[in-house]
Amino acid sequence: MTSIAADPLASWNDGAAKREILAFLARVTREGSDDFVPEPERVAVFDNDGTLWPEHPVPFQAAFAFDALKGRIAAEPQLADDPMVQAALKGDLATLMAGDGHEGALRILALTHAGMTTEDFHAAVESWMEEARHPHFGRRYDALTYQPMQELLALLRETGFKSFIVSGGGADFMRVWVERVYGIPPERVVGSTARTVFAMEDGRPVLTKTLDTLFVNDAHGKPSGIHQFIGRRPILCCGNSDGDHAMLHYTTVGNRRPSLGVIVHHTDDAREYAYDAHSKSTGSLAAALKEAPQHGWQVVDMKRDWKRIFSDG
Amino acid sequence: MTSIAADPLASWNDGAAKREILAFLARVTREGSDDFVPEPERVAVFDNDGTLWPEHPVPFQAAFAFDALKGRIAAEPQLADDPMVQAALKGDLATLMAGDGHEGALRILALTHAGMTTEDFHAAVESWMEEARHPHFGRRYDALTYQPMQELLALLRETGFKSFIVSGGGADFMRVWVERVYGIPPERVVGSTARTVFAMEDGRPVLTKTLDTLFVNDAHGKPSGIHQFIGRRPILCCGNSDGDHAMLHYTTVGNRRPSLGVIVHHTDDAREYAYDAHSKSTGSLAAALKEAPQHGWQVVDMKRDWKRIFSDG
User: Fold this and answer.
1) Is B145 helix (H, G, I), strand (E, B) or coil?
2) pTM to 2 decimal places
3) What value does the CA radius of gyration of chain B take, rounded to a whole number of Å?
């Protein structure tokens, strides 16, 4: 273990969560001990929305999609007649997510995340991130990452871990900014993906986004996504909702290596939001929270365990 | 650039290919030069079959499948009545690959690459690699990697590159041995993949392999696979067949960074095999070879450019 700051988790209050995380990292990096894990196997996975930054009032990628939709409507006003477009413009996530097939959400995705080149999509996300402001906090969305989790990511880098984002969010959306914001390179993002189509156009290679074979990297999809993209079982998993329940299982149950699960519990309605089983946005947390004691998953109480919430301010 | 051996490509004869590869690496790693590429963007992609090891008389994964099939038939003798199973037992790749849908190949894949857990598949590949011997060279398959390419992989590691395998082979097949054989970790494998299904069985997490939403990472699929799994455009691409043509384009045409394409040309029927436009196995090379001069792709003549072929022997 390389030398690390006197208190690498300075924004964490002393308590069980901080203690257990530090004890776990000491255990798996201590050469010669039975619990030692060789560096290539030190794989950590992090959910993004609600784990590394907020997911209220809507997941940030939904805010991007709703804003992108306004641009589309300016060019094609008849789109505003579509009831799902109207729901999106109202930020009505419940209507968009209704039904097993989530037809509304797919309709909005088709209008905002397909039919353009990967380069044009990248540029659209980049400029939205520059211009958009969070409706409650009034700041850039990417200024709203959680400082305590940034400290954990930094500590994992120093202790020979590879950290991956494993999120229901779109890989193409996240890869635009993960390196700058989290120090995580694009190839360490496991997200929802769909097929792109390759062609040479006017002698130049072009990839066009589609929604074909959409893979939704959530819930039971997360262990599948981890296997498909990483191909190795993690030993540390941080999530905040029942969408992370399966990957908490996959990380910690029957793993031949020591492992740790961490659940970020949103308990701070003064500094951020308070919700678990009943969330007005995504991020409902019930089953995983109930099972936490049985598996030794550390529940981080944001109000009690974190001295500060956001990285910048 | 860290200090490297006096001749890091010792198994390469002096010639244009070696000279151009070394000149490219010097150019992109020289700080302060216009051609300097920051480390995170030093992404190299390598085809596997025919580029890092042979693909004759059949791709090694096909040999694995045919051997696995014999095991299945021992348990279920009626399988031997299937004409596609008979073709596989004869090593008749042409029959299996016939038709647009390659139904024969899919039938064999379904029998040998689906319906088991990822752990059981991993164990099957590992024990096959221990036991199987190449019919022509009489050695373990994983002892047949090309020494000159191993030297190139090592040199790229020393010069801050991240090397990825980008192969039509199955990711699950390759990830079993890539770290040991090439020093490339499993998450840097972009291969053909299909969905796995996650379930808790008897309280333990299990991923079961299927062929659902099979993604064949070949030809036009390779740039799509690179985008989906890496999310960043490579600056160095090594291939050997028209299946690599699209990723050679994607790497080198209109790239805002300096880039290099390399084609391994099988010209040595004494030490390995000689084929290009007409291959008895996979690996046909015609269009990409013809276009090489136009794009400055370096064609490696195995007979002329390589002092030795294999790593171990």
Assistant:
1) coil
2) 0.96
3) 20
Tens digit of each residue's pLDDT (9 = 90 or more) over B37-81: 999 999 999 999 999 999 999 999 999 999 999 999 999 999 999
The torsion of the CA quartet A232, A237, A239, A244, rounded to 10 degrees, works out to 50
Integer CA distances (angstroms), B5 to A31, B1, B2, B31, in order? 30, 12, 10, 20
Q: Which two tokens stand for residue B137?
A: 């060279």
Short-list A142, A139, A148, CA closest to A307: A148
Residues B54, B272 contacting (CB under 8 angstroms): yes
Q: What is the pLDDT of residues A57-71, one digit of tens each?
A: 999 999 999 999 999
Q: Which long-range contacts (CB under 8 A, 24 or more apart) does A11-15 make?
A: A11/A147, A11/A148, A11/A151, A11/A306, A11/A307, A11/A308, A12/A148, A12/A151, A12/A305, A12/A306, A12/A307, A13/A304, A13/A305, A13/A306, A13/A307, A15/A304, A15/A305
Q: What's the DSSP call for residue B297?
A: P
**B239 inside 8 A of chain A by CB:** no
User: ipTM more than 0.90?
Assistant: yes
pLDDT tens for B212-234 read: 999 999 999 999 999 999 999 99
End-to-end Cα spacing for chain B: 31
Q: Is A266 helix (H, G, I), strand (E, B) or coil?
A: strand
Q: Which residues of B touch A172 (CB under 8 A)?
A: 231
Q: Which residues of chain A does B229 touch, with a Cβ-Cβ cutoff of 8 Å? A: 187, 229
Integer Cα distance of A230 and B171 in angstroms: 10
Any CB–CB contact under 8 A between B42 and chain A?
A: no
Q: Determine how many CB atoms are found less than 10 A away from the CB of residue A310.
A: 20
